[in-house]
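FIELD: query
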Amino acid sequence: MRKCLGDWKRPHRDTDHGKEGSGLQSKTGKQATPSQTTCVSTLAGACGDRPHNTRKQAGQATGHHLPLSPLASPEALPGSSGLSYFKAMKILIACEFSGKVRDAFAAQGHEAMSCDLLPTERPGWHYQGDVRDVLDDGWDLMVCHPPCTHLAVSGARHFAAKQASGVQQEALDFVRTLLDAPIEMIALENPISIISSRIRKPDQIVQPWMFGHGETKATCLWLKGLPPLLPTNIVDGREPRIHHMPPSADRWKLRSETYQGIAEAMAAQWGVLEPAYS
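FIELD: result
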C-alpha cells in the first residue's frame, strides 16, 4: 500500500491515548436532544428526495464499537527498537445510512461510526442524529456524503426556485461546515455540482468502472490530507444504470448509496493503520 501511494505521507496526528479513547455520544458527552437536531430536509444524509418526516429525531448512538487499544505486532518498525504497535483510527462516516463505507473501514480494524438522521440499514456503530453533534469528538478521518438534492447540476432547472427559497445556500453552508471540520483527513463526495463553482473544484473525479462496477456515475471527491483514490479494478461496461433507474419509493435511496468497490478502495487506501511507538 505504501508503494502504490507513492511519496505521499499521512500528516502527523496526536497519538495521545486519552484523546483517542474519548466518548462519541456528542460534543457535550450526552445524547443529543430534539432541539439539537436542527437541520432541515436540505441536510438529509443522502442524495435524493428524502421524505421530510424523517428529519425530526433525537440523536442516539447505537451498535457496539471497539475500544481504541493498541494492537501489538511481533515485528519492530524500521529504525525503531523494541515492540511496535499499530493503533486503529477513529473514523466518522457522515451522512451514511447504508453502513457500506463504515463497515469497510471497520473490517480494516478501525473504530468507524456512521451518522445519519435515518437508522442504519445494517448492524453496526451508528449515530442517528445531526452529524454536527459529533464533529468535534476527536476523529482522525471523516468520509462525508452530504445531500446533493439542491446542489447537483442534474437539477439545474430548479436552481432559481432553490436559490429563492434559500435551500441551496443552506446546502452549501452544510458542505462548508463539513470541509472546515477540525479533522485532519477529510474526503467529501458529491456528483457534479455547484460545489465546484461556489466553494472549490474537486481534487478528483472517479467512476464506478474504475472499481469493479461496469457503470458510469461521475463522483467528485474533495480531499483534505488524503491522496487521490487509485483505481483498483478497471472493468468493461459504461452503462448509466443509476440515471436510467425507474421511479420508485426507494429511488432516492438507491441512487445515493456508495458502490461497494469504491467503499473498499477508500478503506484499503485511506485506512492504513498508523504506527505508534511504545
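FIELD: remark
Residues 167-179 form the longest helix (13 residues).
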